Amino acid sequence: xxxxxxxxxxxxxxxxxxxxxxxxxxxxxxxxxxxxxxxxxxxxxxxxxxxxxxxxxxxxxxxxxxxxxxxx
Length: 72
What we know:
InterPro entries: Cro/C1-type_HTH, Lambda_DNA-bd_dom_sf, TransReg_Diox_bact_type. Keywords: DNA-binding. By secondary structure, the chain is mainly alpha-helical. The protein contains five helices and no strands.
């Protein structure tokens, strides 16, 4: 699974809008929108911030999806 697909899935499971997730993670809406639509790959720091905002315990899963986009 690609990172942006997993991110959208996790966000929707928690009934969060892109704006709300962005506020919680400290990531701008436009950047988050671009990540979720697969236009850009997030940095490690952004992935960690998103994992914290989404209360994801297994951050390694998200990091591996983001770091190895071709394997997703």
